[in-house]
Amino acid sequence: MSKLQVISDKNKKSSKIKNLLLKKIKSYQFKKENLIIVIGGDGFMLQTLKRNKNSNKHFYGINSGNYGFLMNKFSSKDIIRNIFNANSVSISPLEMIVKNKKNQIKRSIAINEVSVLRQSRQAAFLSIKQGSRQIIKKLVSDGVLVSTPAGSTAYNLSVHGPILSLHSKKLSISPISAFRPRRWKGKIVKDKSKIVIKNLNPSKRPISAVADNLEVRNAKSIEVKISNKIKFNLLYDKNRSLNKKIKIEQIRKETS
Questions:
Q1: How far apart are CA 225 and CA 132, in angstroms?
Q2: Is 212 a catalytic residue?
Q3: Which among 42, 142, 191, 237 is annotated as catalytic?
């Protein structure tokens, strides 16, 4: 078992929280093995998770960014107690496999979403399959997005995709500024599905594929599926679980 790690983003607020936390840990003689405390925003947490994708560690996030959906609120008074009493949730990322115009294969994982985006001024021409089943033969749009439940309140919600319950075992496929068919709102599929997105006109209408924040340009085909081999164990304060945060967003969307 490895020792506790505390890592922070490179900004003043994160460094200040880290220094306060290290003093607390020392004074309480705090020992909690196999734990990484991550201080920063959602983007920094996503980077940290990807760097540690082959570990079996637990991650407790402390928000020093803006929204901090994946993080916990810092409380100088209660932080040690909050970490000890935190509840664990296990999530699996998406695996993105991209073939580019040179027939090179690029792989990456995405905890929130895989987004396929037009790379030029012209709209993308895409086909989408769920396994061998055709979902849509030709989508003319700015792109399409495949989201996990954990990521369904992020970019997916911004493109008017559905918010998925954490334990729904579903994925969301949402169009980005659909032009034809204009009224297509996307589709919710089982998380065991393999989704294949193809560029119908790669020479004239190039597209890029983005796994959270990693971009592959000039994509010809993109395969997206859940990677069940990887599981991230995230820790949340009892009164602010990830599932509760998602439910709050569902209510907010329904009443807005």
A1: 14
A2: no
A3: 42
